[in-house]
Write a structure and sequence with these properties.
This protein is of the alpha/beta class and about 270 residues long. It contains 8 helices and 7 strands; from the N terminus they run βαβαβαβαβαβααβα. The chain has a 7-stranded parallel beta sheet with strand order 3-2-1-4-5-6-7, sandwiched between helices. Strand 4, helix 4 and strand 5 form a beta-alpha-beta unit. The protein is globular and about 65 Å long. The relative contact order is 0.13.
């Protein structure tokens, strides 16, 4: 019988997901990785195994609920427990509601909301039996700050935040905690793929604007966000549940760009 804690991380092959599953491995967790990119996942799994931890690789399309459920079943069969679920995987298409197609809408909500809901359901069934467990939903400050160019993604993240409240209310009496993490601008593959309608990559311009809005004046790093995720799954956060936590460098509650502040009060807000 496995005595080590077990974490399931979706979207674990790269970016924040890879950093997160490696952080849990460093903290002594056995790991279940879910992603459609099997090649990249193998590299992450190899790093986990170098730490002396197990890395179960589940390669498939996460929008397929049958595949998602099979990953949970495999986890229980091979490792005997589930301690933490990190709903990290995401999918989105950049464009306005005017151009949105029904299949794009459905795919985004399925990956970003429907699958996380059912993964939470299946994992919580195991967690309730053990009277402990943590479900962490990776959301976004875009649930509160609309951009006008990601309608399905923003709707899904808003739904994920509301789902967090619902699941925390349901599973709390069984000792299962549920939190949503509203992330800001993080350096990952998804932060470098913004293109205009003409096909031009405008990621650098978006980065410049975003850094001008963030009090810490930089994007977050995947490794530092991973440490926050792991901390929230630990007993250091044992009384935290049913909350949406902003990890955004201060962006959400900051109203005007720093270059504008510099124009008005250059001594108070010098150029960085």
């Amino acid at each position: 019988m496995n005595s080590r804690p077990v974490v399931i991380v979706t979207g674990a092959a790269q970016g924040l997901g890879a950093a997160t599953v490696l952080e849990f491995a460093n903290r002594g967790y056995e790991c279940v990785l879910i992603d459609r990119n099997g090649t990249a996942m193998q590299a992450v799994a190899a790093d986990i195994e170098k730490l002396g931890r197990r890395a179960i690789q589940c390669v498939g399309d996460l929008s397929d609920l049958a595949f998602a459920e099979s990953a949970v079943t495999r986890c229980v069969q091979e490792l005997g427990r589930i301690d933490v679920l990190v709903n990290n995987a995401a999918w989105r298409n950049i464009g306005t509601m005017r151009a949105m197609q029904a299949d794009e809408w459905d795919q985004t909500l399925r990956v970003c909301l429907t699958v996380p809901a059912f993964l939470a359901k299946w994992c919580a069934a195991e967690m309730e039996t053990a009277k402990r467990g943590v479900i962490l939903n990776i959301s976004s400050i875009q649930a509160k700050l609309a951009s006008g160019i990601s309608p399905a993604y923003i709707a899904a993240k808003g739904g994920l935040d509301s789902l967090t409240y619902e699941l925390a209310t349901l599973y709390g009496p069984s000792g299962v905690r549920v939190l949503s993490l509203n992330l800001g601008a993080i350096d990952t593959e998804m932060s470098a793929d913004y293109v205009s309608e003409d096909g031009e990559n405008v990621s650098d311009a978006i980065r410049q604007f975003a850094e001008g809005m963030i009090p810490l004046r930089r994007f977050g790093r995947a490794d530092e966000i991973a440490r926050s995720i792991a901390m929230l799954a630990s007993d250091d956060a044992s009384y935290m549940t049913g909350a949406c936590l902003e990890i955004d460098g201060g962006w959400t509650h900051q109203a005007s760009p720093y270059p504008l502040k510099n124009k008005q009060f250059p001594k108070e807000f010098p150029e960085s």
